[in-house]
Amino acid sequence: MRIAHLSDVVRIGIGAFAGAGLILTASGCLATRNWVGEQLQPIQGQQEQLETQVNNLHLERKLVLDSTNGPTFKTGSAALSANAKREIDAFVGDMEGPAASASAGSAASQRVFVVAGYTDSVGHEDYNYELGQRRATSVAGYLVGSKGLDPTQVRVVSYGASRPVAENSTRDGRRSNRRVEILVYQEKIAS
């Protein structure tokens, strides 16, 4: 009888211990959830601010560096041709040209340059993505190093072969798909 009573006490003790552990775990989970929420609060605020900024941008200008006016990128290459540099020079020169208003300095500081790299479909998907990234980085480097753009205003993105503008089944189509686009966004002015 004593042994049976002892086993009941042990069972009750184990049950109480398990219950206390469950309560502590649940309150620990709630505390962790609250802590995570507190940590995410500033990030969520930054995300909302970024979304507002993106919604306040509009496309001001666009330059497509492709083979229309001569070669820009050879197959598998991210090196800028002399022709591509001339096109970039003219594009940036037009933005800074004599027609620019007196407020051009403040307008230029509100610009965002997105440099997007593209490839043809020859090669593996990962390779093409990386090649598109190298091409966009090459153009961005030229914009910053040679044209004096503020590097904080330049963003680089690669689409690889995922967004062709022509058929990849022909040589001319593949040449057209080996391109970089420079998209210049300007912050909208509220009226």
Which key terms come to mind for this protein?
191 residues; 60s Ribosomal Protein L30, Chain: A; four-stranded mixed sheet
Protein described:
This protein is α+β, with helices and mostly antiparallel strands and about 190 residues long. It folds into two domains: about 55 residues; about 130 residues, 60s Ribosomal Protein L30, Chain: A (2-Layer Sandwich), CATH 3.30.1330. Helix content is about 55%, strand content about 15%. It has a four-stranded mixed β-sheet with strand order 1-4-2-3. The longest helix has about 55 residues. The termini are far apart. About 5% of the residues have low confidence.
- Alpha plus pi helix count: 5
Share of helix, binned: 40-55%
Number of domains: 2
Q: Report the order of strands and helices.
A: HEHHEHEHE
- Rounded to the nearest angstrom, the distance between the terminal CA atoms is 89 Å
Counting DSSP E segments of at least 2 residues, the number of strands comes to 4
What's the architecture of the largest domain in CATH terms?
2-Layer Sandwich
Mean pLDDT figure: 77
Cα Rg = 29 Å
> What do we call the CATH homologous superfamily of the largest domain?
OmpA-like domain
- What is the strand arrangement across the widest sheet? 1-4-2-3
Q: Into which percentage range does the β-strand content fall?
A: 15-25%
The global form is elongated
Largest sheet: 4 strands, mixed
Helices and strands: which structural class?
Answer: alpha+beta
CATH classification, class level of the largest domain:
Alpha Beta
CATH topology assignment of the largest domain? 60s Ribosomal Protein L30, Chain: A
Which spans of ≥5 residues are poorly predicted at pLDDT below 50?
99-105
